[in-house]
Amino acid sequence: MPPTSPLSVSGIHLSYGDVRAVDGVSFDVAEGEFFGILGPNGAGKTTTLEIAEGLREPDSGSVRLLGEPPWPRNLALLPRIGVQLQASAFFDKLTAREQLETFGALYGVTAARVDEVLELVGLTDKAATPEAKLSGGQRQRLSIACALVHDPDIVFLDEPTAALDPQARRNLWDVLREVQARGKTIVYTTHYLDEAEILCDRVAIMDDGRILAMDAPARLVRDLDAATRVILERGALPAEQARALPGADQVAEDELSLTISTRSPAPLLSALAERGTLDGLQVRTATLEDVFLELTGREYRA
Fold first, then answer.
1. Are 78 and 151 in contact (CB under 8 A)?
2. Nearest to residue 182, comparing CAs of 126, 119, 140?
3. For residue range 118-143, what is the model confidence (pLDDT) as tens digits?
């Protein structure tokens, strides 16, 4: 790897008794990259991240973080890394600003920097609000702010959007995009495949402690060569006529809809347009969830 690569993980293993939490995981992260580790709960994502951060020692394998081993606990790395854990604990009765000032004091952070980070995560108007009175989404943004306040080179985020409502999740996406736009390297875990598909430059799909696939989301989906699904409201077209349409490979019908699978969507959609059956039509291409299904043979469960 080039010397500027901030993280290199090579063949790490970690077991808890008979359970292999991490089973031979290897990956490299480039400078300025948004790298996602994704998979269902229990896949080994958090343990992998904790090993990369230097919070856990692997049974075997190696990690280079900003050119140095993070384990045993490397104090020289702490000012250069930011870590947001899956569960964050804040100081009782402190406001959002006071929380950041307390974390920042460990690194000699100025008041101006605290203001800058509050603005970055969209909490300027909540600076004087006690942490206990923040919403779930605001609390998550404060947690990320604490990981960013000392201006680290690489940021580790463990399921930062877990348990948030859809609007709060999307608001946090904007924060994460802005963090990357400022030149930071981001390594994060999530069990939301749709989120990783939108945010990440590359993803590693994990299950049972192993990486099943790793690449840019669009490339993983493209390489799957999966069929496109065209979904019509039930009754819009008889199933027999749907099967006769150009490009129709498979037709399935339930009580609500009729689904046509195709690898040639253009002629199929043209034929449907000629029949005037485009109202309410939905077109669904393959996603990372389809990649997961192909790799594991089972439906994805968060």
1. no
2. 119
3. 999 999 999 999 999 999 889 999 99
* pLDDT tens figures, 246-267: 999 999 998 889 999 998 899 9
pLDDT of 1 above 70: no
Pinpoint the residues of the chain covered by CATH 3.40.50.300: 7-218
* Domain covering 227-285 assigned CATH 3.30.70 in the classification: yes
The first and second tokens of residue 117, run together, are 């980070």
Q: How far apart are CA 205 and CA 212, in angstroms?
A: 6
Buried b (16+ CB within 10 A) or exposed e, 47-59: bbbbbbbbbbebe
**d(C-alpha 242, C-alpha 85), whole Å:** 51
Pick the CATH number of 7-218 from 3.40.50.720, 3.90.1150.10, 1.20.210.10, 3.40.50.300: 3.40.50.300
